[in-house]
Structure formats: structure tokens, C-alpha cells
Specification:
1% helix, 1 helix, 63 strands, 777 residues
Length: 777
């Protein structure tokens, strides 16, 4: 006998035990159980998918650690997902590698706020679907909530515990983060998301955009069990995923029931169940079935040689787990159908050895017997029953084993005649005539509702007669009256009667709970059949009750068929309290105002005919509401006006002449003002050069503007002196320097002019305030 693998290992490890993963984009393996999804670079996308489909009609329990980066200002996050598309999907940026994957269900771990998607400002998580990461869409299934209950930062260079649990029997998806249950969704995702197909891929995606973070995960545990077959005497090492404590059951046949990897050496096939407590305090269970293969398990015994009846098939079945089979005709199945006489053998072989057995099959016919027809005997008579058949075994109803039986009393007699080919059975009923047993229909009785009463007067060899001339032994009563039955045989007559009365189980209905106005009187009526009694919680025993005060009223109605009870609450209402929509108000463009009464149990009517408890104002106008109940109504009105942020324009920078002034006005309704010199008036008169700044404050928004104003003087008088006579070669220099533009007769704009020849010279000195002209000849 050859025996291999005397020492075996059976364990639950993240990858070796349950398959391989497909990596896409920037994803990279960091070891046997850890992966980086994105490095700390912009515009990255990575995904890691388990390559084997899992079945969501079965429980799914998954433990991992996720790494969300070291940069609190980074982006974008990680998604754990189920999807039925392929193992090569993913995307960039705010979509976290998950956007566009449909159909799918994802658990997002988002470290960046996209306010247009409804993201909160904190690091958050949510259950989303069909590749849509917006929390404002109908595809958002649960959340968002803070990843940490305190709302703290998770981009902290640390790995965080993740547990995802799917229960198809309760349609519940639970997500735990750092040992805390953070999200729960209840819904049949197999039907509503995956169109009834439970087979999906699972994995992680991540993405970065303009901002980045290193993001990844490590797998701790995936629910997955293994069974195995070993020979008797072999030792097997069991193993489960990581935990902080372990408990195996049963402890028999284990080296240590309180460690992760005990040695198992059971004496019989055994299912071991391990309870593992993880660092979060959660307890999971795994089971391992060890089937022992014995040398003796190959033992086969067809038993003694046997017979084959005509048309019969004998199934020789030697099935047991593990071995191979070889029959006399070369077939290798675990069973062989015998349809003809002959010699048959089989040989079994497994890792523990080889065994063989044979059997000879011969032909034979089954018994055939008859005891005759049922019969009636007179008192003192006997009957001999004969069931003889060659080479047969006999069994009578009294346990006797002879081929014949003598009957001396009434009864049912049967015999089973058997041989190796089969058996035959026959029965005969032997009756002895006696006077009928006295008929007893029972006491007179009351029947409730539509119940029936079945009377049975059956007796052997008798005839029957009822009050309505029917002749069956059984009679069903369904109405009140007097009933009788008569039983007759050859030996006499017996008769009895019974009187039946009907009643009804009480039904009581006091009506719906009611709210009425003060002073209203209500009459409650619980009347039922004349035999009924009544008990109110007020102590009254009448069938009716007059109510003129609020409270809970109840009654019990009882008769012979049972009891019923009901209750009704009566509340007294007052007219609605006064409603106040607030003071007339001024709103900014684009703002809304929620008007609400805060009242329940009333009806509402707004100015536009709607009937909600609140109304949202988006436009100027008059708004009113009327609140009504059965006791009255109240109303209120509010005027709402709209305005915009102020427009502030001091005009363009300007130049003024000395003695002039400039007045600027920034008046705006409802605004306040602050100038650079701390003035708070809307109007200011400017008389000196400078830069002037104003800020206009308004509840719809602040605005500001500034203006530069420069004041200049008028030109001074200019004199070139008296006319001059120059000698040949002489020159004269005129200097009229001022802070203005000067124009000579030749177009020069310099303040200095040199005269070298005779002529008439003039100068114009001017600015926007005044012009002066001087002529020299």
C-alpha cells in the first residue's frame, strides 16, 4: 500500500487560497497581499480586480487595510467595488477610478471635497452605484458620512481597518471603518443593480488629478473554506487568517484548540469550526471538514450469492468518496446494474490500498398467493387460510410463521410470503355478526359562527338512517335543529338524537380614533347577540356608551363563542394657534425664504393654492397662508421685496482747475458707507487733489471704487519786455518757464527760446484753465 503526504497543511490565506488579481493603470504589487493603486503623482488611475467571479447569492465577508496617503491636502480617494463588466476598468481624478463603471456597487473613501457632487468638507465615505460618484444623484445608496466618527483626517500615513459584509438572505451591505460600523444599505442589489446576475468581480480603484496622494490596500481575509481527504493516521495542519484569539471546536483530535494553526489528527471524519476574534472585537467563523480514508473503507462485501427475478435489475453500488473502480467488464463507475445471471466482481483502489469482491447471481420467481374474498361468519364458526408456496417464508398478522392459519374470531387477517426474489401479500376480513353498539351522538350543544359538527355512527356490517332519510354512516351538521341516527344489522337496531343551537363570535367596531371640537357628544355602540355581555373601561356594562370628554375608551364583548374587544380614542381639538410668517422683509437677488407654520394635524392653504406645511419664496410679492382644522382657521401675510448688490461708480480719474470742485454720490437703498477719510455719508465734495476711495456695505454684497482727482493752477502772466533792436550777430534769449505747456510762434514747446534774427515773436501760455498771449516785435 502506497501512502503519500503524511503531513498536510490546510489554511485560509488571502491569495494562495482564493485566486489571482488583475492590475490596471498605475497599480503595482507591494508583496503577496498588498498593492499600491496610485503613486503620489497627479493624473494617475489604478485598479486591482479579483480575476474569479464571486457569487452574491452567498455570504461575502472581506477584511482589508486601506492606505489613503500622507498629504492632508491631496486627492482623490479609493473605491471598493462589485462590478460585472471586466477586470480592466477604471478612470482618473475625482472619479477615483470608479466613475463610469456600470453596473456596479461601490464603497467610496473620498479625501477631497467636490462640492458640485454634494461632498462634505471632511474625509468621508458612502455607498454609491453604477459609476456615479455624486451624492446628489439617485445612484447614491447610503451616506455620505465621516470616515472617522470624529470627522478627523485619514490622510495620515497610516493603514486603516476595513470590513465589508454582504448578507444575501437579509439583502444587507454593512461597511466598518477602523472597527466602527459606518454605513448600512438594505436592498436586493443582485436584482436592482446587476439584473438578477449574482456573479460579479470585486476589487479596488483609485485616482488622482491635479492633486495627488499615494493610495493602496492590503488584503487581510476573505471568507473561503476548504475540505480535504486524508488517510487514517495522517496529520493535517489547519489554518485561518489573522486574529487576536482563536477557538476551535471540537477540541478532540487537535494539538491546541486556541491557536491559528493547530495540528489535526482525528480518529473519524470531522468538521472543525474555528471562531476567530479580530483586533476590532468582531468574531467570524470558518469550518473545515476532514474526511478520513481508511484501509477498511475499501472493504466491500456483496454478501451471499443472490437471485434475479424475471425483469428485475440488481444495482451493485460500492460508492464511497475517493477510490477508483474496476468491474469485471472493464467499466469504471461506482455502480453496476445486473440484468442477467452470472459472476460479477469489482476492485476498489485509493491512496490507502486496493480491495476486491465478487458475487454469483442466479434466476428465481417471486411468490403468488390468495386468501380468498372477505367473508362473514356466524358465531362459533372457524375458517382455515392456506398460503403455501415452495421454498417460501411466511409471516401472519399474529406473528406466526406457518403456511396455514385457523380463524376463530372476527378481524383482518393478512400474510406475507417471501423468498429471495420478492414477496406477495394478501388480506382477508372476517366478520362475525353482533347486535349494533348503542348509538351515542353526544350531548345537546351550541355551535359558533358557521362551524360544522360531524357525527359518525359507523359500525361493521350495518345500515344507517338519519332524520332526513340519508343512509351514510357520517352526517355533517351545518344548521340548528334536532338530529337523530339509527343503526341496523341482522341482530338489531340502535338509535340516538341531539339538539343543535347556533351562536356567533362577537364582533365589535367602535370606529376610528376621532378628533372633535369641544362640546361634541359621541355615542359608541357595541351591541351584539342577545346572549352577549359588555364591559367598558369606564365600568359600564351597557351595550352603548355616551362620550362627552376626551380619552381612550375600550369595551370587551363576550358570549359562549368567544369574546372581542376594540378601543377608540377621542381627542378634543382647539382652533389652530396663531400663525406668524414674520415681518415684511427685503431679500437679495437669488436668495430664497422658507415660510413655515410649524403646525401639524392641520390643513394649509397658501396664496398659490398649494397645501404644504411650508412654502419657499423665490420672487417678490405678497405671500399668505391659512391654517385650518375642524375647529377653525387662522392666517397671516408677509410682503417680500427683492434688491440687488449696490452699483458703485465714482467715474474716471479727472483734472480740475483751482477753485473748482467735484461732487460724487454713491447713494444705494439700504446701504452704509465708509470713505478713506472715515466719512460715512453717501455724498462727498472733492476740492483738493488726491485719490478718493469708498466702500458701500450692503446685505446683498459689498462694493468699492476709487477716483484720482488733480487740481491745476491757471497760467501766470508772461512778458517778453519791450521791442528790441539787435545788431548783426547778436542774440537774445527768452525764458518763460512755468508748469504748463508753452507754444511759440514756430511751434516750439520749450520754455527757453533764442532769437538770432529780426522779426515778430509771440508766445501762448495756457492750460485747460486759461490761455495767455504775449507779442513781441
Amino acid at each position: 500500500m502506497n501512502r503519500s503526504f503524511p503531513f498536510l497543511l490546510l489554511s485560509l490565506i488571502p491569495f494562495g487560497a482564493f485566486g489571482q488579481f488583475a492590475l490596471n493603470g498605475s497599480a503595482a504589487a507591494n508583496g503577496p497581499t498588498c498593492y499600491t493603486l496610485t503613486p503620489a503623482l497627479g493624473s494617475q488611475a489604478g485598479s486591482v480586480w479579483y480575476t474569479n467571479l464571486i457569487d452574491l447569492s452567498q455570504n461575502f465577508e472581506f477584511y482589508a487595510q486601506i492606505f489613503l496617503g500622507c498629504n492632508d491636502g491631496g486627492a482623490d480617494g479609493v473605491v471598493f467595488a462589485f462590478q460585472s463588466v471586466s477586470t480592466s476598468v477604471g478612470s482618473l481624478g475625482g472619479g477615483m477610478g470608479y466613475a463610469g463603471i456600470s453596473p456596479s456597487v461601490g464603497v467610496e473613501f473620498d479625501t477631497y471635497q467636490n462640492s458640485n457632487w454634494g461632498d462634505p468638507a471632511t474625509d468621508h465615505m458612502a455607498i454609491i452605484s453604477n459609476g456615479n460618484v455624486s451624492h446628489l444623484a439617485a445612484t447614491n445608496l447610503a451616506g455620505p458620512v465621516n470616515m472617522l466618527p470624529t470627522g478627523g483626517n485619514v490622510e495620515d500615513c497610516l493603514y486603516h481597518d476595513l470590513r465589508v459584509s454582504w448578507n444575501p438572505f437579509t439583502d444587507s451591505l454593512n461597511v466598518y471603518f477602523d472597527c466602527n460600523l459606518r454605513l448600512t444599505y438594505t436592498g436586493n442589489i443582485v436584482n436592482t443593480i446587476f439584473g438578477g446576475n449574482p456573479n460579479v468581480y470585486w476589487g479596488f480603484t483609485a485616482g488622482t488629478g491635479a492633486l495627488s496622494n499615494q493610495q493602496g490596500f492590503c488584503v487581510d481575509y476573505l471568507s473561503f473554506g476548504l475540505d480535504t481527504l486524508v488517510c487514517q493516521g495522517d496529520t493535517l495542519q489547519l489554518g485561518v487568517g489573522s486574529g487576536v484569539s482563536y477557538s476551535w471546536s471540537p477540541a478532540a483530535g487537535l494539538s491546541n484548540p486556541n491557536i491559528a494553526t493547530p495540528l489535526a489528527f482525528p480518529d473519524t471524519s470531522t468538521t472543525y469550526v474555528a471562531s476567530i476574534t479580530d483586533n476590532c472585537g468582531f468574531v467570524r467563523t470558518e469550518s473545515f471538514t476532514i474526511n478520513l480514508e481508511y484501509d477498511s473503507s475499501l472493504n466491500i462485501n456483496f454478501g451471499n450469492d443472490t437471485v434475479l427475478c424475471p425483469g428485475q435489475t440488481i444495482l451493485l453500488d460500492v460508492f464511497r468518496p475517493g477510490p477508483t473502480y474496476l468491474w469485471q467488464d472493464g467499466s469504471t463507475g461506482s455502480s453496476f446494474s445486473v440484468t442477467a445471471p452470472g459472476l460479477y466482481w469489482v476492485e476498489l483502489e485509493n491512496i490507502c490500498g486496493t480491495k476486491r469482491d465478487s458475487i454469483v447471481v442466479t434466476a428465481q420467481s417471486p411468490p403468488a398467493i390468495s386468501l380468498g374474498n372477505d367473508t362473514t361468519l356466524c358465531a362459533g364458526s372457524t375458517l382455515s387460510l392456506n398460503a403455501s408456496f415452495p421454498n417460501a417464508i411466511y409471516e401472519w398478522q399474529d406473528g406466526s410463521g406457518s403456511s396455514q392459519l385457523t380463524v376463530s374470531g372476527p378481524g383482518t387477517y393478512w400474510v406475507v410470503v417471501s423468498n429471495q426474489c420478492g414477496f406477495d401479500r394478501d388480506t382477508i376480513v372476517v366478520s362475525y355478526e353482533s347486535p349494533p353498539v348503542p348509538v351515542n351522538l353526544g350531548n345537546d350543544t351550541i355551535l359558533c359562527n358557521n362551524n360544522t359538527l360531524t357525527l359518525n355512527v359507523s359500525q361493521p356490517s350495518s345500515t344507517y338512517l338519519w332524520q332526513n332519510n340519508t343512509t351514510a354512516p357520517i352526517f355533517t351538521i351545518s344548521s340548528p335543529g334536532l338530529y337523530w341516527a339509527q343503526v341496523t344489522n341482522l341482530c338489531g337496531i340502535s338509535r340516538d338524537s341531539i339538539n343543535i343551537v347556533y351562536d356567533q363570535t362577537p364582533i365589535v367596531n367602535l370606529g376610528n380614533d376621532t378628533a372633535v371640537c369641544p362640546g361634541t357628544v359621541i355615542i359608541m355602540n357595541a351591541a351584539w347577540t342577545p346572549t352577549s355581555t359588555y364591559m367598558w373601561n369606564t365600568g359600564s356594562t351597557a351595550s352603548g356608551l355616551i362620550v362627552n370628554s376626551p380619552g381612550l375608551y375600550s369595551v370587551s364583548v363576550t358570549n359562549t363563542c368567544g369574546f372581542a374587544q376594540d378601543q377608540r380614542r377621542i381627542d378634543y381639538l382647539s382652533p389652530p394657534p396663531a400663525v406668524n410668517l414674520g415681518r415684511d422683509t427685503l431679500m437679495c437677488s437669488g436668495q430664497t425664504l422658507l415660510l413655515a407654520t410649524g403646525q401639524t394635524g392641520v390643513t394649509h392653504l397658501w396664496q398659490d393654492g398649494t397645501g404644504f406645511s411650508s412654502f419657499t419664496v423665490r420672487n417678490p410679492g405678497t405671500y399668505w397662508v391659512r391654517v385650518t382644522n375642524i375647529c377653525g382657521s387662522v392666517s397671516d401675510t408677509i410682503q417680500v421685496a427683492y434688491t440687488t448688490a449696490p452699483v458703485v461708480d465714482l467715474g474716471a480719474d479727472t483734472v480740475l482747475c483751482e477753485g473748482e470742485s467735484k461732487t460724487v454720490d454713491v447713494t444705494w437703498p439700504g446701504a452704509s458707507y465708509l470713505w478713506d477719510d472715515l466719512q460715512v455719508t453717501p455724498v462727498r465734495t472733492i476740492t483738493t487733489s488726491g485719490v478718493y476711495h469708498v466702500t458701500v456695505f450692503h446685505h446683498c454684497g459689498n462694493r468699492e471704487d476709487e477716483i484720482a482727482v488733480d487740481f491745476i493752477a491757471k497760467p501766470l502772466p508772461v512778458s517778453l519786455g519791450d521791442d528790441l533792436i539787435l545788431c548783426t550777430g547778436d542774440t537774445v534769449v527768452f525764458d518763460v518757464a512755468q508748469e504748463n505747456v508753452r507754444y511759440w510762434q514756430n511751434g516750439s514747446i520749450l520754455p527757453v527760446y533764442t532769437v538770432r534774427r529780426p522779426g515778430q515773436y509771440e508766445i501762448r501760455v495756457y492750460n485747460q484753465c486759461e490761455k495767455r498771449l504775449t507779442i513781441f516785435r
